[in-house]
């Protein structure tokens, strides 16, 4: 009898153990990002902290270059074996939602997210009113200029209008030294588009309104003409403009080596400038985008990033992924009421979009003169359009702007081509 | 009596032909089928909608889709022709240098030439992107020593594609030199001996013996060089991303952009089918040209 009782007891304990194991199912969560190795290490450290209190969740981080991120998402990220979490650029969201690759944020987390992020950022992470990602970084464009070159050219302050901007470009250009006044970008879609769009909105214009392109506006005419003038006058040299999203190429080389007087770039560029310039980074200053003849105030464009969850992942993986993201972006995971995500972003010179992160890092952001120039322009920034076919629209406009850079077409032809191509692309993709 | 033989033949051929059917024919047929569909690569095949030849019409339309495709097709054709035109004569010249026994160093030269073929493309891309830098690149500095003004290389739409071709030639010429050397070893010495006795000089021996006897090797080299050139992807993806102004946007890179980045699977498949047909036509023309040359010599 004792033996029978012992067997029964052992069987009961085994059954209990098995049932509790079944209740707490382990989840493997993979996180796809384009961040650099040192930032990935910080994310892995945050994941390790989370795993201490959630031993059933195993989180791994996979990084690919920015140029390969969308392709990786498209080719493998959407399958059941793809990444559970991915960091994405907001312009990609409509197409990923249309193809059913990402899952909506669970109600409880969505309510909390909507309460803690600015409405514009929430809007960029939503389609049809449904929130699909937890926003993290926000990027905005500003004018960067080399104070040393400004002083040598006798320019005392940053240009506030396009006339001042053009005059500064003229003074800064010195072909005998291989020096250009203003640096444009080519060979990288976002790098080409965002500075152009920043000048356009600072001239009172827009790229897209209510899903329709408005590149045929007077403001756009003036922006295309500004580009043409800068190229024809030789104040911007397309041979110094090649760049890619990994911040390599003549565009960066020219600015860090003091061969370019002014550029229009985003705040995340700071780490690349610091790495390339060393002590000479102190020569770089930031100013608002100069106001065009049809503009009322200095404006810029902004875009945001968010983390989304793979709709093809298992229910357990999705639940674990959202729980981890909620913690990562929440106020308890980082120092002094900041989120761990905010802490990672600020370490890269990137502005976090969570309202409480802005407050937690306010002192740090305001004490960095480079970033201060960006935070000051954020309030008047317009979001880059988030539309179906956004990538194709961007690549098409990129090609047209590059055609102006290399003198292949006039400003008028470029504007007509840009508007007609954008109309066709957005209409086709909206079907 | 024939039945058992037929059965065993089928049984022996089945594994190989089955694998070919699964891994070669099925994807090819799928691509052809998809080229007639409107389909997002992110959704299942069941979502594909038959659109007839609309994708092919779009490829040659006057909008941005058509313009970009035609430009990519032309870029691919220019890249292929330039690559073949440069690689084949260079490989013959290097092959003769390696094969000759008058001066020492042939084996060293062959090793050096072939080593470029073994260097991973990522390393080649990193090095060449710096070598080609218009302001700080060593190539422009060397040109400056002999009074040639700095070139824009990858930074200008006029020179970017040629710059990528030169990179390709630099990497591939060693491989084709080895093929030519293999062909040269098949030419009997007695032919050269007889020609020499008849008073033929080196040039006459090259044009009348060496080159005709290398015919099959050069035909094979040309076919491989064309296929390699048409499939060029890595240097474009790693260095130029198709720019500037789409000057280096070759078809494989463009298909990746359309089919994967934009998820337009039907359109991407139509481009792939058009590329495949173009390649078949090009190879067919090459074989017809080779056959005609052979018949003319008879």
Please explain how this structure is put together.
The complex is a heterodimer of chains A (431) and B (298). Chain A is an alpha/beta fold. Chain A is 49% helix and 16% strand. In chain A, the strands form 3 sheets. In chain A, strands 1, 2, 3, 6, 7, 10, 11, 12, 13 and 14 form a 10-stranded mixed sheet that branches. A two-stranded antiparallel sheet of chain A has the order 4-5. In chain A, strands 8-9 form a two-stranded antiparallel ribbon. In chain A, 53% of the residues are buried. About 3% of the residues of chain A have low confidence. Chain B has 298 residues and is mostly helical. Chain B is 74% helix and 1% strand. Chain B has 13 helices and 2 strands, in the order H-E-E-H-H-H-H-H-H-H-H-H-H-H-H.
Give the helix/strand layout.
The complex is a heterodimer of chains A (431) and B (298).
Chain A: H1 2-23, E1 27-33, H2 37-53, E2 57-63, H3 66-77, E3 85-89, H4 93-98, H5 107-116, H6 119-124, E4 126-127, E5 130-131, E6 133-146, H7 147-152, H8 162-172, E7 180-183, H9 189-201, E8 208-209, E9 212-213, H10 218-232, H11 250-256, E10 260-266, H12 270-277, E11 284-287, E12 300-309, H13 315-328, H14 340-347, E13 351-352, H15 355-360, H16 362-367, H17 369-378, E14 381-383, H18 390-405, H19 411-430
Parallel strand pairs in A: 1-2, 1-3, 7-10, 12-14
Antiparallel strand pairs in A: 3-12, 4-5, 6-10, 6-11, 6-12, 6-13, 8-9
Helix pairs in contact in A: 2-14, 9-10, 9-18, 10-19, 18-19
Chain B: H1 2-34, E1 37-38, E2 49-50, H2 54-59, H3 64-99, H4 106-118, H5 121-131, H6 138-145, H7 160-185, H8 189-197, H9 202-213, H10 215-230, H11 234-240, H12 251-261, H13 265-297
Task: Write out key terms for the chains shown.
heterodimer; A: 431 residues; alpha/beta; 10-stranded mixed β-sheet; two-stranded antiparallel sheet; 14 strands; globular; B: 298 residues; mainly alpha; two-stranded antiparallel ribbon; 2 strands
